[in-house]
Fold this sequence. Notes:
Blueprint lengths: L6 H5 L1 H13 L4 E3 L7 H6 L6 H17 L6 E6 L14 H18 L3 E7 L2 H12 L5 E5 L13 H9 L5 E8 H13 L4 E6 L1 E3 L5 E3 L5 H13 L4 E4 L5 H12 L5
Parallel strand pairs: 1-2, 2-3, 3-4, 4-5, 5-6, 6-9
Antiparallel strand pairs: 7-8
Helix pairs in contact: 2-4, 2-10, 4-5, 5-6, 6-7, 9-10
Amino acid sequence: xxxxxxxxxxxxxxxxxxxxxxxxxxxxxLLTTNTFRTQRRTLARAGLADRxxxxxxxxxxxxxxxxxxxxxxxxVLGSSAPLEDCYRPDLVPATxxxxxxxxxxxxxxxxxxxxxxxxxxxxxVREAVIAIRAAQETGVPVLASFVCGxxxxxxxxxxxxxxxxxxxxxEPTAVGINCLPVSFVxxxxxxxxxxxxxxxxxxxxxxxxxxxxxSPRNDTPPGAFATLAAGWRRSGAAIxxxxxxxxxxxxxxxxxxxxxxxxx
Length: 264
């Protein structure tokens, strides 16, 4: 299904609103917009290119409403994805296309009023550099997050260390890793800490399926996930959370863990 998560903005926007509210109620301080697949390139494949602005702004508004109604949520992050499949670095488009399309998507996110743009699940250094530059032209703070394998390498084979070095001069607000299994995180932590940039960790609990769906994993319950997140924080992460497969219960467990008084 070419629309993937963007389909919810058409068939069930009220459900998107409920999900944002549930995460905010669970204690999330950052809410990410459902704009991972609202780029014109993706919508055009479903014959909906003319609804790019409408759906992107709708997604931002849904997150903003939940944020404004919550005592916990403070920031709305506009999600921006690789233009092609985030697990297929071989499909990354040409430089001119990357610059033009990432800038267009970032402009819509900024128009909608996001507090920052998070370019996430990046799988190549080339797209990361171009996407960050394009998003920074909006004047909105920009975060960049990579998806890595078990060896602290991007799916392109490039090292996470080289990726962070390549974008350091662009001075993103923060960097990070996301949409990787929790078992892959530890190899990345020393690299992220060595970069001396503020960093985020938000791992997933599952994997995409061949039919375009998602198969969640149930082997890391909320309490265990919160314990892992606490370890990421001890390793220097400024932001911790969950990606695909996590639920509000995982966020609630993280917040409860950090609310507990430290042992005497």
